[in-house]
Amino acid sequence: MNEVMTILESSLTDANFRKLLAIPNRHVHEFVANAIELCEPMKVFVCDDSEMDTEYIRRTAIARGEETELAVRTHTVHFDGMFDQARDREHTIYLVPKGETLGKHLMQTDRERGLKLTKDRLRGSMRNKKMIVRFFCLGPIDSVFSIPCVQITDSFYVAHSADLLYRHGYNFFRRLPEDSEVFRMLHSSGKLMHSVSIDWKRRGVAIDYRENTVYSYNTQYAGNTIGLKKLALRLAIRKASREGWLAEHMFLMAVHGPNGRKTYMTGAFPSGCGKTSTSMIPGATIVGDDLAYLRKVYGKIRAVNVEKGIFGIIRSVNEKDDPVIWDVLQSEHPVIFSNVLINDGVPYWIGDGREPPKRGINFSGEWFEGKKDESGEEIPPAHKNARYTIALDGLSNLDETLDDVDGVKVGAVIYGGRDTDTWVPVQESFDWAHGVITMGASLESESTAATLGPSGVRLFQPFSNMDFLSIPLGRYISNHLRFGEATEAPPKVFGVNYFLKDSNGNFITDKLDKRVWLQWMELRVHGEVSAMKAPTGLLPWFDDLQRLFRRYLNKEYTMEDYLTQFETRVPELISKINRIENEYREGVTDVPALLFSILEEQREMLLAAQREHGDCIPPTVYDEIH
Ligand code: SPV
Ligand code: MN
Questions:
Q1: Which superfamily does 2-65+85-244 belong to?
Q2: Which CATH architecture has domain 311-394?
Q3: pLDDT tens, residue by residue, 369-402
Q4: Which among 106, 246, 279, 586 could bridge 102 via Cys, Cβ 3.0 to 4.6 Å?
Q5: Which atom of ligand 1 is nearest to the CA of 450?
Q6: Residue to substitute in 87, 224, 313 for testing ligand 1 pocket (most ligand atoms within 8 angstroms of CB)
Q7: Which ligand is nearest to the CA of 165?
Q8: Protein residue whose Cα sits closest to atom 7 of ligand 1
Q9: Burial class for 580, CB neighbours closer than 10 Å (0-12, 13-18, 19+)
Q10: pLDDT tens per residue, range 204-255
């Protein structure tokens, strides 16, 4: 301990030392001292969340060229390197102590070996740089959901982004008992040229769950570097598993039903599949767009937003389809744009509905129409995974419960992915276990630009949380089953699909139709509409949808639309069950037996329906259920 104090005292100025020591937690002191020893920063800055300190971070990000000011005074742009534009799944690795395994789906290495490599990469990485130490709280402060998190980084952009995205925790940390559990994140951008990480070939993220610590190096993309996002999620999943709650890749929103009623729903969609646009849909209010913790509080399942901001995909955000986000991005609300095109201080992105400029600055530097990369590929004006970072406060559609310490009661849990050929646009599961197994655990989705590698490849994406799982998949599923089953009235579970295509390969739903699916789910939660029992779940009646389309979208919904959107595609659904069973049979240990029995039952029901009605079953044949 004395050694820790000696390092801190000799490396920090008096003011920074005092700020750090005002936090009594010894894990924090030790972590900062070890990081200093390892990364050898020139200076250390401890942020106490005062306006002066947070403003210093923003100004320095600009002064160092990590961000550039835009025409709107409160907006900046940040560029990541050409090859550092998304989460790097391949190099995100768990450090697993001897004798443990996380199963075949997760990238893992021996802890000792992995730690050595990580430390070699981080050694001396902050020479000539300033180390920033910041404190945050995941979930509302002073609540049963709160998790204290300390972030160390040498990137002012990362520290500035975290400022918008996470609840400031310096004062919360000051009140914490000396020994309480803290998540710890250490990031270095490594060597820079024009403020961009150049050692990206040697980048990586290492998760040392035994010590609640995540390391990230030689990368800047926020998904790899802002420790509180997906890096902390991996630690939270382990903590949740130990303590009997759930840490999920889910939005949290209030759908507004009749007479001002609000029904809270969480939704798990893989990255780039409509999670943010769903939670920002007109007429609803948003609590969070990406991460939720679910706990049983007073016998009911309640949830909070882990974050207080949005790091959202900007591609295709336009005035017509995403009016709420569009307005925010045009306003003076602070925004960090990343990897968009800048022309004359104005940001542009793919699918923004405007005439694109022919030149500007983007992630490749000076850009002009027709510019090619090293392999001769044309460089798009903005990256497909270009993003915006904003705080939620100030949004006209922010729900007032964001900081409620007990969270909100969850009425529905939704699962959805980029699924071209199986699931209908919306259906309800028969019960919690059926939803967990046939929707959550059976989710498949095409890959997107949110992760490095090819897009459009069908991937097994259980619970939309596969990329972040840190416990064996079988155990994760058992946790889900137990969580709902031990609850008196668990939320209803729904599956949605915004990406269903017809046999000609055309999408058969509109971007805004999701509003109707949400309103239908809201009515189902309160038992105010009946449904029809298909083999895969409960489907809406045509009349109810037609009424909701008129009311919420002022659109004439036709029987023809209904018949193509809600048909049961038996051969495709059977193939899907086969694929999912194979995933669970091969290399997943401790799969609950219930998973196989529910999938088998599902297959039997589909085959029985096929014998009676053929391969492609119109929804009109099913019986009513209340
Ligand atoms: C996602 O890709 O799911 C995101 C962005 O929400 S990040 O995880 O931060 O890369
Ligand atoms: Mn996400």
A1: Phosphoenolpyruvate Carboxykinase, domain 1 (3.40.449.10)
A2: Beta Complex (2.170)
A3: 999 999 999 999 999 999 999 999 989 999 999 9
A4: 106
A5: 2
A6: 87
A7: 1
A8: 223
A9: buried
A10: 999 999 999 999 999 999 999 999 999 999 999 999 999 999 999 999 999 9
